[in-house]
Specification:
about 170 residues; mainly alpha; 9 helices
């Protein structure tokens, strides 16, 4: 095994779980997330000599997000999925709320979903999110604002703030 292969293997061993979570949150489906991660890792490996000189993880995140957006566009999964709003106030640890949140995330257009995942789950700054998505800071701000408005409408103000506040818990 060459040094490059060893370095790539070490990167995958250290960061695969986190990157799989990003992929899952970007697409909302476990199988699709595994495919997204595999595609991202394949592209990263092909470009390893160039990528490893830079920061690898942001590159892989960007490939995951761009691939998720491209696949969603190709499949025309841009329609709004009907929402189930809980009839009772739910705790952030409530499994039903997690399902409702995932449904709400799936209903967002791919770019808005990507911004929410990167900003609130991955805890990237607006600038870092713009770099990953290859867009302007203003685009990140407007997409985040639109996405949060849709989530608040679907879930209610208290539920969204509670879930976002406990995203890392």
């Amino acid at each position: 095994m060459s040094g490059a292969e060893h370095d790539f293997g070490a990167f995958v061993a250290a960061r695969a779980t986190t990157l799989l979570r990003v992929a899952y949150l970007a697409c909302g489906d476990e199988t699709e997330a595994e495919d997204l991660l595999q595609t991202a890792l394949e592209r990263t490996y092909k470009n390893w000599d160039r990528v490893r000189r830079d920061t690898v993880e942001p590159y892989v995140r960007r490939v995951i997000i761009n691939t998720a957006i491209s696949r969603a566009r190709r499949r025309a999964i841009l329609h709004i999925i009907p929402m189930r709003v809980p009839e009772r106030a739910a705790r952030s640890t409530d499994v039903d709320l997690r399902h409702v949140l995932m449904d709400a995330l799936r209903s967002l257009p791919p770019r808005q979903r990507a911004v929410v995942v990167l900003r609130y789950w991955e805890d990237l700054s607006e600038t870092q999110t713009a770099e990953v998505l290859g867009c302007t800071l203003g685009t990140v701000k407007s997409q985040a604002s639109k996405a949060m408005a849709k989530l608040r409408t679907a879930l209610g103000e208290e539920a969204v703030e509670g879930v976002i506040g406990n995203a890392h818990a």
